[in-house]
Amino acid sequence: MSLTIDQKARATMHGNDQGTYTLPTNGLYPYQWNWDSAFAALGFATFDVNRAWVELETLFSGQWDNGMVPHIIFHRESAGYFPGPREWGTKTVPPTSGISQPPVAATFTRAIYASDPASGRSRVEKLFPRLLRWHRWFWRHRNEDGLIVVNHPWESGRDNAPEWDEAMANVDTSGVGTYSRNDTSHVDPHMRPSKEDYDRFMAIVAAGRACGWDEEELTRNGPFRVADPGMSFILLRANRDLMALAEELGEDSGEIEGWIRIQEAALPRLWNPQLNGYDALNIRTGNFAGSMSSASFLNWYGGIENPQAMAEFRRITAAVPFAFPSHDPASPRFEAFRYWRGPTWGMINTLIGMGLEEMGHHGEAEALRTSTASLIEKSGFAEYFNPMDGQPAGGMDFTWTAAIWLAWASPNRHRKAG
Ligand code: DGY
Fold first, then answer.
1. 305 is annotated as an active-site residue
2. What domain range is 265 assigned to?
3. Does 81 sit in the ligand 1 pocket, CB within 6 Å?
4. What does the pLDDT look like over 197-219, one tens digit per residue?
5. What is the DSSP letter of 17?
6. CA gap 416, 170 in Å, rounded
7. Of 78, 118, 135, 214, most Cβ neighbours within 10 A?
């Protein structure tokens, strides 16, 4: 008997499960990644809610004293990944990277709690103060007048997106030296960031290590500081969910409400009229990136309506057989197979789709869901997909693609797994 896609999705998640945390995929990513893990929790919650809570609890076991939740936690040594604990040099226990990643955890904590409040209450009570400390860290160290910035392209989760080209061009790579990447031995180099990108990624890591990951120093003088629509919308949304959790737990929500008001007032500054879209803004130069990406359309997820964004969303959706591409296919920088410069990512589709649905754009939300489902039916749980022909790209047997199948894309998503 052949397995259903739901069964295959659960098997994929089990295959990457390390007991208390889940690898994004074996080989290419041999540790715990921050937002990958939050998506894993969302997937686990469809068939094993206790395992979902354990995933989030393990993620927060890596939280720094200053509140940051790192983008990678190196629970145990693995030779197969670069840059590892030595390059990051954070001197933390457990060893971690020195940057964070998009905070989807509060949003998914709220969703998982809603799916089973009785068993989730004690788990949420313990997670809430940790989520709050993380969001406070964002507010203290990644906030530029209400716009949320990233200090490294890896922090955005969209590593080599054209959003970063302008700011990356100013990163000095003269001290980087030689190193050997491991990612291109796992995946076709045409689907991964270029050598120039990697040199700059490593130069920014070296700058963080050199100052002992001192946030004040990096805020003032770090080589990369760019306001990101993705991070801004995702934190705004996460703050709304954190506020709802605070109210549910009878905690004071005034501080969180204050952040939301400031973020809402700041966001119009990320609208680039030349682009007719939300754009990244380099804090060091004041320049827009001129890049329309999938993150430009997270405004509904952030609770922000925008008819002009909707017109662009419809244009881009109509331009590719498998929406939603990570970069505008009308742009000369679009590359259908290269990581965040064109491919379609199921987990971004999920965030966009959630936002569309919640803001009443049911037709668009449903179309995005069914096209994501058709991609997965055709090409499996790939890391990302070519938006032109639906071919799989990057790593295979990917946790977050399996997780979003179960939680969002599957026709059986509302049915509890037996
Ligand atoms: C990688 O290694 O490509 C990761 O995306 C960095 O977080």
1. no
2. 5-409
3. no
4. 999 999 999 999 999 999 999 99
5. B
6. 51
7. 135
